Amino acid sequence: MTDQTKPHASRSILDWSIVILLAAILCALLYLAATGKRVDPSQKADAPPHGHEMLNAVLWQKTSAEFEAVTRQLYSLAQGNLKRALQDPEWSAIPNSKANAQLAPTAVVMDLDETVLDNTGYEEYLIVNHTEYSRESFQKWCESGKSSAIPGAAEFIRSTRDAGVEVIFMSARSEAQRACTTASLNRLGITSDGSKNEMLLTGGGEKQPFRDAVAKTHRVLLLVGDNLGDFTEGSLLNVEKRRQIARQYQEFWGKSWIILPNPMYGHWEGAVFAFDYAMPREKKLEQKHKSINSPE
What we know:
Blueprint: H1 6-35, H2 55-63, H3 65-87, E1 106-110, E2 117-118, H4 120-128, H5 135-144, E3 148-149, H6 153-162, E4 166-171, H7 178-187, E5 199-201, H8 208-217, E6 219-225, H9 239-248, E7 257-259, H10 267-270, H11 281-290
Parallel strand pairs: 1-4, 1-6, 4-5, 6-7
Antiparallel strand pairs: 2-3
């Protein structure tokens, strides 16, 4: 090859490279147009497609030292208050009821989920699968036996029983979950026979009739839970009325009523969208956003 033909060969190779590059770009554009996908250069390829409304709350309960500190603190408070209650014949956790020191036995009434049993593993499942609670998935979770104990709960239950006080569990779980709930408690060292005298299951209904029934046969010294409905009626009212109820019973909080934090779920959440649990998830999120006052 002469010196005169070399530049023509180089240009030929370069021209073909440009043609191949342009063809590749055209194919990519045609593919994107066909699939409807758009490239966002600010998004990493392995970034999750969307978040979940419970992410921070579940992370706090699962990973924070503060969660364990506050639950142990509250159960320590409950132990101290129980000692005081046993020495006070007029002590009662039931509003507008006249305490009867002669009424035996005494009892502490406790909720189960997020009060005794920690279900963050189930909430993690919801986050990973970007979905919501369902009876079917929670039934499988119950049967898996993977619940852990809320820090401080097992020790409080043992000390309460050692003091001769009955522990009665009152839960929104269903009868279909009695066996797996009993198995979970026993696995965690919280002895339970699962009987209807020891474990009252409301199936999601109001707890007040169950509390009234217990108060007829026991002197109830403490109520322990994570939801307003674990203590009184009115939990299914709107946001402002629920807060009014909390203020109405302010003398009970931290004394005969011990409430644990639950930022993951509860009637506080349902009140935001009028307890319309059949509402599409996107609409629920819209209602939550509307409940937040925009900063001025």
